[in-house]
From TrEMBL:
It comes from Neovison vison (American mink). The gene is SNX17. Belongs to the sorting nexin family. GO terms for molecular function: phosphatidylinositol binding. Keywords: Cytoplasm, Cytoplasmic vesicle, Endosome, Lipid-binding, Membrane, Protein transport, Transport. This is Sorting nexin-17. Its main location: membrane.
């Protein structure tokens, strides 16, 4: 992705000028090129093109903690979003959904950023200030059957009203969902009545949509606790279930355990889970622990039409996103695994947030220290969160990497289990190491 900023615009007082200041502060190698803003009014088609460019730009910088903690940078992006959509600052009503479909209507400004909207929702629900940081806002697309496909977690520098209305479709909604991965933090939330209700509603919803794996007996027990309105007991039982608190993505394709393998990816409990159906076997699951991922990156490409060349006048191919991570398969063997999915960026952000949480926990901090706080009207990060760094980005995986070995030996390199079988998660000793990555011994495999 390369966009040029004309010198005449880059020194002006608008978002281009902010880009110039930021490049001076952080360097051109850190800050991607910003989509230029034309001097004249944009046509509807040009507005949509610039919206897409701005979205790609924000995706490119989302995972850089240095930029993410910069109020100058966040202010620059907020102005850019308003300028692109030509949205004046005014008070509006914004609808936010809870996991059970309940609607929360809040009055916000079009210029309010994610944290402002989150605080407004919390105030409307009577959620205490010290629990706000345990939840986040997500942009989702509602399918015809009423289920949600998660597009992304709304970042601090986003303007939720602008983000959802710029898509110009009633399919897109904003949903409130818990933002942490370690279920141990549930205890903090469950102490409060509103927090308990939010967790309960999310868990019931996840079970109903099949995100949490439940046996018939467990389902019977959960149903009994629901009828008794025993919410805490219900959650305690749910915490023992496979994929509790996970975020599930749409069906996609991976090159593991073999090329073009249809999989369903879920993120949670410091791992990526890939569910797949082996030839002649039941549904199986492979688990990739974040502590064994040396690094990862998201790449995009536009597949060429059949024949290998594009011809003038033909439409652009759909952009294909891939999440590739280098995984420690055995003590001395690293291997790239690639997932092809439109939600690859969302998967990457989930990985980063799991690493952040592990690193804060390893340093002896608490999740409360990861929350952003207002000081003099400005959002700042705590020292413990600023210390968390993103993993290094490597070049794209080598297309000529060694061919796949036998399926059985390939699967033996990861934690593999049948759906519904007892959990065989790695022990808590996995949660440590530089950037949350650690070497493993043969006894761990």
């Amino acid at each position: 992705m390369h966009f040029s900023i004309p010198e005449t615009e880059s020194r002006s007082g608008d978002s281009g000028g902010s880009a110039y200041v930021l490049r001076k502060e952080y360097g051109a190698n850190v800050l991607p090129a910003f989509p230029p803003k034309k001097l004249f009014s944009l046509t509807p088609a040009e507005v949509e093109q610039r919206r897409e460019q701005l979205e790609k730009y924000m995706q490119a910088v989302r995972q850089d903690p240095l930029l993410g903690s910069s109020e100058t940078f966040n202010s620059f992006l907020r102005r850019a979003q308003q300028e692109t959509q030509q949205v004046p600052t005014e008070e509006v009503s914004l609808e936010v959904l809870l996991s059970n479909g309940q609607k929360v209507l809040v009055n916000v400004l079009t210029s309010d950023q994610t944290e402002d909207v989150l605080e407004a929702v919390a105030a409307k629900l009577d959620l205490p200030d010290d629990l706000i940081g345990y939840f986040s806002l997500f942009l989702v697309r509602e399918r015809e059957d009423g289920t949600f496909s998660f597009v992304r977690k709304l970042q601090e520098f986003e303007l939720p009203y602008v983000s959802v209305t710029s898509l110009r479709s009633q399919e897109y909604k904003i949903v409130l969902r818990k933002s942490y991965w370690d279920s141990a933090y549930d205890d903090d939330v469950m102490e409060n009545r509103v927090g308990l209700n939010l967790l309960y509603a999310q868990t019931v919803s996840d079970i109903e949509r099949g995100w949490i794996l439940v046996t018939k007996e467990q389902h019977r027990q959960l149903k009994s606790l629901q009828e008794k309105v025993s919410k805490k007991e219900f959650l305690r039982l749910a915490q023992t279930l496979r994929h509790y608190g996970y975020l599930r993505f749409d069906a996609c394709v991976a090159d593991f355990p073999e090329k073009d393998c249809p999989v369903v990816v879920s993120a949670g409990n410091s791992e990526l889970s890939l569910q797949l159906r082996l030839p002649g076997q039941q549904l199986r699951e492979g688990s990739f622990r974040v502590t064994r991922m040396r690094c990862w990156r998201v790449t995009s490409s536009v597949p060429l039409p059949s024949g290998g060349t594009s011809s003038p006048g033909r439409g652009r191919g759909e952009v294909r996103l891939e999440l590739a991570f280098e995984y420690l398969m055995s003590k001395d063997r690293l291997q790239w695994v690639t997932i092809t999915s439109p939600q690859a960026i969302m998967m990457s952000i989930c990985l980063q947030s799991m690493v952040d949480e592990l690193m804060v926990k390893k340093s002896g901090g608490s999740i409360r220290k990861m929350l952003r706080r207002r000081v003099g009207g400005t959002l700042i990060r705590s020292d413990s969160q600023q210390a968390v760094k993103s993993p290094p980005l490597l070049e794209s995986p080598d297309a000529s990497r060694e061919s796949m070995v036998k399926l059985s030996s390939k699967l033996s390199a990861v934690s593999l289990r049948g759906i519904g079988s007892p959990s065989t998660d790695a022990s808590a000793s996995d949660v440590h190491g530089n950037f949350a990555f650690e070497g493993i011994g043969d006894e761990d495999l």
